[in-house]
Amino acid sequence: MVAAPASLESLCINSIRMLAVDAINKSKSGHPGLPMGCAPMGYTLWDKFLRHNPKNPKWFNRDRFVLSAGHGCMLLYALLHLTGYESVTIEDIKQFRQWGARTPGHPETFETAGVEVTTGPLGAGISNAVGLAIAEAHLAAKFNKADAELVDHYTYVVMGDGCNQEGVSSEACSLAGHLKLGKLIALYDDNHITIDGKTDVSFTEDVLKRYEAYGWHVQHVPDGNNDVDAIAKAIHLAKEVKNKPSLIKVTTTIGYGAPNKSDTAGVHGAPLGEEETELTRKQLDWSYGPFEIPQEVYSEYQKAIGRGEKLEKEWNQLLSTYRSKYPIEANEFERMLRGELPNNWDKDLPSYSSDDSGLATRKHSQICLGALGPNLPELIGGSADLTHSNYTDIKGETGSFQPETPEKRYLHFGVREHGMAAILNGIAYHNSGLIPYGGTFLVFADYMRGSMRLSALSELGVIYVLTHDSIGVGEDGPTHQPIETIPSLRAIPNMLVFRPGDGNETSGSYKVAIENRKRPSSLCLSRQGMPNQANSSSEKVALGGYILEDCEGLPDLIFIGTGTELNLCVEAAKELTGKGKKIRVVSMPCVELFEEQSNSYKEEVLPSNVRKRIVVEAAQAFGWHKYIGLDGDSVTMHSFGASAPGGTCMNKFGFTVENVLDKANKLLGE
Asked: Any catalytic annotation for residue 417?
């Protein structure tokens, strides 16, 4: 590709800088330092390397660009605007950070076409990018043929010092090096400034040596402020390295061009202000007014439109040829891209009667994964080094995703819970129909919470398989007994939290989770076994809560149970029914889904004039008050657990039929 003349190149770079300055000044809020410093690498990457089509931001075989340092989002918005994306007009730039704007304070996939990843928490973006690269490598191995490379694109990242300090990036990038993800290229904005000032107050390691130890290819561009040729050469070289991800350290000056504020923490997260902006215009020889961009700059950047349309047309022709040569593979590929599930994908999900042996729901989960695997080829995932505790393997599958076998769909994440969650998000962000899942102990959801929250915020249908869900874990003790975790997950908007009470409810939980491609699901599963209930229902899991056992007429008391404790409710109900009491048992495998039902259905299940209710769940009572009310009670946890056999823990903390009956009798005045 022929390079633009130096004077035009300078205009193109300074257009990014000044759009950022003007937008942030107008909003009186934002982070101008990064876009001013990163403008040369942004221009180089987007003008000379990035394969994308501004007229179709969702073209499948585009390169993915992730701004991991999401606070510097005006870099991305400027590039989207300049290259011709209709989602970011000059009016959108002027509305930066305002209500309803398509230019929010950090990039959000659901707000702005062209934004690939919702980045805000530092380190998340580069970790998501590892997931994007895994998705590309897996699909390429699965669908590409010797005469048709249908899947062939890069994932590029701009990351900062903060991203490299956050632990999640270390987890994900270590795995990326092991997996030899050669199509992952990260540009590290090495500007030596964070909010507290110079990074040497806390961060003096050799980042390149660290990444080299991870197994990455590393380079350094000493003058990232001006040396576009060196940036371009480094990207070229990185693309030639096929068996390693690449990190290019690009040393820049934060706030480059602002004479009094550059290279200071003051330019990181505050507008330049009127006086410094005028000095910056002079420093950069920028003779244009606020939000004014020379036409020759638009003409240069928007060459991306013609290039992108040509690339997409060529790819569509390749897809057409592929379709005629490999119709079976093409049908599956295009079905996945449309987000359609295969016909009868759920036909082998098991169902149970009360005569079937009771199992732990983690074991039922394994059976479900085994049933789904052959019928759902887009299912991909694994465990954070707990495969044989989480039971996250897919029966019949051999081998795992390794550098030599990227076509495999089982991922060994290692002891990297947060990295796993961020990578799963990245796989979902790829928008190729892959359905990612990942397993660990429920208590370690606290390690993953930042990325789980982003799953919910970004409408990513990640499935979290979270086993060992209560004090029933037993001997490992309170450090591994998640007494407060389930209520805290229920507090996350758009997160479905399932705690199935037997095999049928586990099957139903998987069915709902698979069908919800814009909502993440947390499957909270037991270590200990439980009986299959006579009236449990896979289908009724979709209602969130339903009547499991009932009586004639209006009940005297309603038990509400989840998970292993559901059976305590059933046994207590039998005892009370034998004594002439009218008892209803409600199973509540998913509170969120129950809340979404009609008022009439909720009234049918939990009549408002039956105020004697008892919730039984081996977790904190937080959140259950809406169902218990002032006249109800609960058998729940009010302290941390203890180290003892699981059955002993359950007994000592009151999760017994006797204690449930005692609570019920008190409510009934017995």
From this structure: yes
